[in-house]
Design brief:
This protein is of the alpha+beta class. It contains eleven helices and 22 strands. A hairpin with a 2-residue loop joins β18 (about 350) and β19. α7 packs antiparallel against α8 (about 200-215). It catalyses: D-mannose 6-phosphate = D-fructose 6-phosphate.
């Protein structure tokens, strides 16, 4: 196995869930062959939900040229070289890439869920290791990508929508009192007295869920409600551990710590609900729209100023976004941590320390720590218009590097940076 590669092309793991978009309508399916290998074939009857990029055991990345060799195997061959000194010292107990990078293509609601913090994750790993194998927290960030949701039922230009956290109490009261179904379910009693037998409130809950699913377009986008709508390309949101959320529709990129722990409480069969754990651990703190949105600024390690950095409150990773015109290049100074990236549209060239890869849609790569990385539009791509460039600039988000290809493509790169003070 190679012991000193700077750039490695990888194959990720595609996953199917019934909430994923079906067949070739799914972004995951569109990227599948180049993301997961030539053995990936689209079945129009299947729902393609996820591409995973990382070293987690539930979807580990492998060499594109040899699927018998995993990225984790490569790291074990020389942990300090492939993870960097800072990462190896920070997390000496593991050889995993410290983040998990995903693309999600969502047709219908995921379960209403939360991901436990470290304390609860450790408890669950001891109590139920079969279902909770990761004693790690799982905060995450997501960014909306792709075209507006079909039909415009969520509003003009909306590319992603979902439930995220809680709105202020005054807003909750306002929305409850405006819904006859919820008022009837809750009544005039104190909140603590409203947990009635399931049979008594089931019809009212069903009615309310139907109203949420079919009538959400009546409300303008507002992050302070339970329903959070992310508008346009590139809007990003941070979701902390123990915060309730459920993605409803759209294409997003997600980045999180290395964990697959999840506690579901709604939009799943009763047997799958972890209601007691959910209530015990859930964070009920309300946050404003400004609190959840991720701002961005010029990345300090960008040599041309074409890269923006998103700074979530995480020590495991930082998200970058780069936009280039035909003929432009960007150089990102070295960091002491690994980099993962995927091309979602167009063709791009990635170079590092004399090595180079030309990547097409769906291609995934890993760049080793300690070297400058040059990103450019691959030669031979079509010219694109200024309108497309503006759209690309709006795509800057999440833990990603977004590099525009000449036909309107982007390359999304997640870069680990343990020294957050450089942002």
């Amino acid at each position: 196995m190679p012991s000193a590669q700077k750039i490695i092309r990888l194959r990720g793991s595609t996953q199917e869930y019934d909430w994923g978009k079906q067949g070739s309508a799914s972004l995951v399916a569109h990227l599948g062959t180049n993301a997961a290998g030539s053995d990936f074939k689209v079945d129009e009857k299947k729902s393609y939900a996820l591409v995973w990029m990382g070293t987690h055991q539930n979807g580990p990345a492998h060499f594109f040229s040899d699927p018998r060799k995993s990225l984790l195997d490569l790291i074990f061959s020389d942990p300090k070289y492939y993870l960097g000194d800072a990462s190896s010292q920070k997390w000496p107990e593991t050889k995993h890439v410290p983040f998990l990078f995903k693309i999600l293509s969502i047709e219908k609601a995921l379960p209403l869920q939360f991901h436990p913090d470290r304390v609860i994750a450790e408890e669950l790993a001891k109590q139920d290791p079969e279902n909770f194998a990761d004693p790690n927290h799982k905060p995450e960030i997501v960014v909306a990508i792709g075209e507006p949701i079909d039909g415009g039922s969520w509003g003009e230009g909306v590319t992603f929508t979902g439930f995220v956290g809680f709105q202020p109490l005054s807003k909750i009261r306002e929305h409850i009192t405006s819904s006859e179904d919820l008022c009837e379910a809750i009544g005039d009693d104190k909140i603590v007295d409203t947990f009635r037998p399931q049979a008594a409130i089931a019809p009212l809950v069903a009615s309310s869920l139907q109203r949420i699913a079919s009538g959400a377009s009546r409300f303008p986008p507002d992050i302070t409600r339970l329903v959070r709508t992310v508008n346009d390309h590139g809007e990003a949101v941070y979701i902390g551990a123990d915060e309730a959320h459920a993605y409803l529709a759209g294409n997003i990129i997600g980045c999180m710590t290395v964990s697959d722990n999840v506690l579901n409480v709604a939009f799943v069969a009763p047997a799958e609900r972890r209601t007691a754990d959910f209530v015990r651990a859930l964070t009920f703190t309300a946050h404003s729209e400004e609190h959840r949105r991720l701002s961005h600024a010029r990345y300090a390690k960008s040599k041309t100023g074409k890269t923006q950095a998103y700074d979530p409150p995480l020590e495991e990773s930082v998200v970058l976004g780069t936009a280039l015109k035909q003929g432009e290049t960007e150089t990102l100074a070295a960091v002491d941590g690994p980099t993962l990236g995927i091309v979602t549209l167009g063709r791009m060239k990635v170079s590092a320390d004399g090595e180079a890869l030309t990547l097409v849609e769906g291609s995934i790569c890993c760049v080793s720590p300690g070297t400058d990385t040059e990103i450019s539009v691959a030669e031979g791509d079509r010219e694109y218009t200024e309108d497309i460039l503006v759209m690309k600039l709006d795509v800057l988000a999440m833990e990603i590097t977004v590099t525009a290809a000449s036909d309107g493509g982007y390359a999304y790169k997640l870069k680990q940076c343990l020294d957050l003070s450089v942002i």
